[in-house]
Write a structure and sequence with these properties.
107 residues, mainly alpha, 6% strand, 60% helix
C-alpha cells in the first residue's frame, strides 16, 4: 500500500475562493476548457471552509491564466493584474503543498 507524502487538499482564504469563483465564471462563459469543474468547486468552497483538492486548485490556476491571456486586449490593466494575481496565488498555494518539507536535522 502506498500513500502520497503530499496533502490532497488545501485550505484557501474565503476572499481568494470568492475571487477565483468570479473569474472562473467568466472562464466558463468564454468556454475555456476545464473551467467548469473548478468553478463548481470554488462556488461551493464556503461550505467546505475553503478546503479544495490540490488538483482543482491547479486546474483553476491554469484556466485563469488562459483567461488572462485571451482577455488581455479587452481588460483594464488593473482588472488584468487582479486576474493574474488570483491565478498566481492559486498556483503558488498548490506548489507550496507539493514542496517537500525542509528538515533542519543533520543529513
Amino acid at each position: 500500500m502506498t500513500s502520497s507524502a503530499f496533502p490532497r487538499t488545501i485550505i484557501l482564504p474565503s476572499s481568494v475562493c470568492e475571487q477565483a469563483a468570479e473569474h472562473l465564471e467568466h472562464a466558463v462563459q468564454r468556454a475555456i476548457d476545464g473551467a467548469a469543474a473548478p468553478w463548481r468547486a470554488f462556488r461551493g468552497a464556503e461550505e467546505n471552509h475553503g478546503e479544495l483538492p490540490v488538483s482543482i486548485v491547479e486546474q483553476a490556476a491554469s484556466c485563469l491564466l488562459v483567461l488572462a491571456a485571451e482577455s488581455a486586449q479587452h481588460l483594464r490593466p488593473s482588472a488584468l493584474r487582479t486576474l493574474i494575481g488570483v491565478a498566481l496565488h492559486l498556483r503558488d498555494s498548490a506548489e507550496a503543498v507539493r514542496r517537500p518539507t525542509v528538515t533542519s536535522g543533520p543529513w
